[in-house]
């Protein structure tokens, strides 16, 4: 689509994003609090920097599963030594999050991995622990999640916590109980991939509430609807960008949707920047 004197249009998969140009309105800075950086190109991060992305939380994912603790550690090393520097070189601050995803628990040796996990987090100077959570609700998933919540409390790191697509309401309830049973303060937890159906279950938890602007989760308009209907002080927008089709410009699109709805600039900045920054320990 051609540029006009009112802004630049960009095609982002099936999402068309209008990025206003001055003097209409300057891009708002934002932090994308959930990105699988190893699956995105350096060019993607340069594009994000150009539209106001100040930083991302680069989370560890499941990567199709792991056979051994060493394969998980090799993956962590790649995130820290290869992907975070790529992000930073593109002009975006990279906040590294490391964790054992419930769909990425190694086939054997997970206790060995957990035993060394505190040193791993400190060694890579991780900013958060994640992405962790429940996928199917199996006993081993719960055991690994419980151990990681305790590690997060021990080392003083916030947690990015995955909620699954299937059986979300039931497993969210179990996750909330596990957080309550742990030593980790709920305000240190970002409950991610929430939607309008399960959000009421999490509102009283004290956790930060993550909304994923993603083709399989929330459209920019749906995220806007949730922000408009709820207290924004604990809402955090992100994209969950990874190897599958994603909205590269999902947060700028949500910003445009919220501005079109007439939401206050303070509210918009809170859900795309301020709350994520506070979560990371940078008030």
Q: What Rg do the Cα atoms give?
A: 18 Å
CATH architecture: Alpha-Beta Barrel
Mean pLDDT over the full residue set: 91
Query: What percent of residues adopt helix (DSSP H or I)?
Result: 40-55%
Binned strand content: 15-25%
Chain oligomer state: single chain
CATH topology: TIM Barrel
Low-confidence stretches: 1-14, 19-23
The CATH class is Alpha Beta
**Main sheet characteristics:** 8 strands, parallel
**What is the straight-line distance between the termini?**
39 Å
Number of helices: 10
Structure description:
The chain has 283 residues and is an alpha/beta fold. The protein is built from ten helices and ten strands. Strands 3-4-5-6-7-8-9-10 form an eight-stranded parallel sheet. The protein has a two-stranded antiparallel sheet with strand order 1-2. β1 and β2 (15-20) form a beta hairpin. α4 crosses α5 (139-155). It is globular, with a radius of gyration of 18 Å.
Topology of this protein?
Layout lengths: L6 E6 L2 E6 L9 E6 L6 H9 L2 E6 L10 H21 L3 E6 L11 H6 L1 H7 L4 E6 L5 H17 L3 E4 L5 H14 L7 E3 L7 H4 L5 E5 L7 H10 L5 E4 L11 H12 L3 H15 L4
Parallel strand pairs: 3-4, 4-5, 5-6, 6-7, 7-8, 8-9, 9-10
Antiparallel strand pairs: 1-2
């Amino acid at each position: 689509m051609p540029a006009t004197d009112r802004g630049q249009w960009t095609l982002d998969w099936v999402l068309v994003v209008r990025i206003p140009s001055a003097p209409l309105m300057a891009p708002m800075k934002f932090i994308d609090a959930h990105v699988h950086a190893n699956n995105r190109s350096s060019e993607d991060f340069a594009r994000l920097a150009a539209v106001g992305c100040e930083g991302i939380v680069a989370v560890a994912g499941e990567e199709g599963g792991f056979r051994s603790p060493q394969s998980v550690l090799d993956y962590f090393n790649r995130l820290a030594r290869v992907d975070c520097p790529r992000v930073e070189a593109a002009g975006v601050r990279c906040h590294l999050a490391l964790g054992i995803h419930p769909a990425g628990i190694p086939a054997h040796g997970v206790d060995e991995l957990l035993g060394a996990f505190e040193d791993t987090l400190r060694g890579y100077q991780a900013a958060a622990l994640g992405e962790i959570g429940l996928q199917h609700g199996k006993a081993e998933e719960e055991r690994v999640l419980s151990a990681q919540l305790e590690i997060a409390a021990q080392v003083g790191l916030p947690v990015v916590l995955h909620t699954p697509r299937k059986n979300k309401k039931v497993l969210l309830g179990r996750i909330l109980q596990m957080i309550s049973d742990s030593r980790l303060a709920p305000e240190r937890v970002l409950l991610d991939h929430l939607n309008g159906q399960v959000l009421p279950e999490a509102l009283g938890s004290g956790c930060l509430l993550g909304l994923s602007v993603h083709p399989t989760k929330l459209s920019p308009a749906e995220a806007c609807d949730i922000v408009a209907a709820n207290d924004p002080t604990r809402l955090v927008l992100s994209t969950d960008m990874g190897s599958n089709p994603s909205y590269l410009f999902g947060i700028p699109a949500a910003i445009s949707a919220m501005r079109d709805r007439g939401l206050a600039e303070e509210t918009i900045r809170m859900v795309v920047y301020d709350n994520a920054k506070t979560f990371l320990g940078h008030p």
